[in-house]
Amino acid sequence: MESERTVYSLYCTDDDLGDRLERVLRGVAVQRVRSRRALVAASVSTRAAVVGITACSDTEIAWLRSGFGLLGPPCVVVARLSVGCVRRLQALRSGRVRVIWADEVESRLVEVLEGFAGTHRGPMWRLGVKLLSDHSFRPSLRETISRVCGLHDDVGDAPFIPANSVGRLARRVDLAPPTLRQYWREDMPLRCSLKEFLSWAVILWAVRARSRDGWNAIADRAGLQRRTLQRNFNRLAGCTLTAAAEDPEQVVRRFNEWVDSVWEPHAGNGPGKSHPVPARAAVERIS
Question: What are phi and psi of 136, to 5 degrees?
Fold first, then answer.
């Protein structure tokens, strides 16, 4: 089950503060990582990240902003209280980035982390939530997005595995494939085909499943041959299966780049709607 695999990630630039945070989180499923690179790699399957910082430098703030934007995991930033930290961290605060001062970690950290429960299932899951929150779609397309991105995972005990073809997905939402493709072209604020969207869902699901299973088993569970899965990784993520297993960060990074490239402002408002669609950069500023 997803909840059994999901942990919190902890990264701290100060060893003493990091040890203190580990003590506070004793009994919580937390994985401490020793580098920023390892933290980003762990974000593929982590529920939320705890990041302890000391200087609140412009470099640290820029890194936090880039690593925990729209498609990064929720984050709790722990810092020592100072005028400079208050000023620099204020702009980062949002529903997905929380700030806790070091003096209050014992009383607040676990509670804030528990508030993130269920808010992270990976970058595709969050993209689906953002799409459904920000845009108006006809019911069949809402269900399509929900199924592709894994939002249906909350229903029942069956583990989520994304559909591997438009035909299979169309049957699940009770539409003919040509009709589903037409609705996708008319309503979606993404300049991509439904097949490409599906392929990314399979890729990101496979990267997360790789922590437990081998590629042959993963391909079989997805209803694909291994060579087909390999082609999808080559074409979209730009890497082999072996490289993806060794460095899942590159897959997430490529997905982020792909999202940047396909966001289309002022499109995909749904039938009869006229609400403007913010570009990804604007979405990040208000999230």
Answer: -100, 125
What value, to the nearest 5°, has the Cα angle with vertex 146 and ends 29 and 242?
Answer: 55
- Give the chain's mean pLDDT: 81
Residue 101 confidence (pLDDT): 94
3-state secondary structure at position 243: helix
Are 99 and 68 in contact by the 8 Å Cβ rule? The answer is no
pTM of the model: 0.58
Determine the Cα–Cα distance for residues 69 and 6; give it in Å rounded to an integer: 20
Residue-wise pLDDT for 147-190, tens only, equals 998 876 444 445 678 899 999 999 999 999 999 999 999 999 99
Greater model confidence, 43 or 33:
33
Q: Is 268 helix (H, G, I), strand (E, B) or coil?
A: coil
Residue 220's alpha-carbon distances to 116, 164, 204, 205, 210, in angstroms, are: 32, 11, 16, 13, 13
Distance CA 61, CA 66 (A): 9
Token pair belonging to 10 = 């902890």
